[in-house]
Amino acid sequence: MAEAVFRVVQAGPLVSVQDGGRPGMMRFGVPASGGMDRKALALANLAVGQPEGAPVIEVSLGGLTLECLSGRVSVAVTGGAFVVEAGGRRAASWQVVTIKAGETFTIRRGHWGAWAYLAFAGALQAPRWLGSAATLASSNLGGGVLKAGQEWVVAEANLLPPRDLPRPVSARPRRRLHVVMGPQAHCFAPEALEAFAAGPWFLTPQGDRMGVRLKGPALALGDALSIPSEPIVRGSVQVAGDGVPVVLLADHQTTGGYPKIATVLDDDLDSFAQLRPGDGVSFAPIGAAEAAALGRFRAERWADYKARMRDRMRGSPD
Length: 318
Known about the structure:
By secondary structure, this protein is of the alpha+beta class. Helix content is 17%, strand content 36%.
């Protein structure tokens, strides 16, 4: 059966294997992990005929260069507007291209976006942990962080016609985030709540797959540090003792005792993850009922978009 073998020439920090994650494990103290931009990961897989949660390579701003040692396989790149070079041919993200033996394949930062996703028209042979290839960066469990010199095998390698991929509007970085205040909003002084909603806020370089610190007005905690440790969800805006908020992301801890001033609408998080350090962001508080309605509406649109993507991939190339 056809396979393609790749060697890692260069991989930036936090370039790792990710998939749909390991949901349902947080009660055992295991983060869900998975893609920082889950939608881009799913669309990369759908573009090459793989299940939307199949293992891919998640590429950070540090970039990635692979050398194809043998075989050939088609790949899709989604996520931010990264620059792609395949066999000396310059391309862009949101495309399907084919790589063959003797060629190098490079993904590097472009005009916008923080993460790119490389999916293969075949099965990326990656280690699993607790049933998932998603890499927990703090422990390197799962598929693992990519290092120069490693070799990776793609089994059942297939070839697809080259094509541009439709990029949804939601793929762009989202600078205005809908939030539901709480669960500890009542622990903050009114002026802290007003400052949180007013901003301005900017992403700092102090960020990774666990979360990102924001720069802006200090949020006075009052007696909020007296709460007991409790479960945390992706999208929690946690405020430490220094009054600095942190938006928790894919590899977030499962419990914590710092207060959460707000929780970001889950559907906003994928686009938020594509922001870079220095980018500005604002928060738009909404009620729980409005958040649920907006979430359902967006979920329906997302399901429709994926169905159209599948139909498009089954059809003739553009």
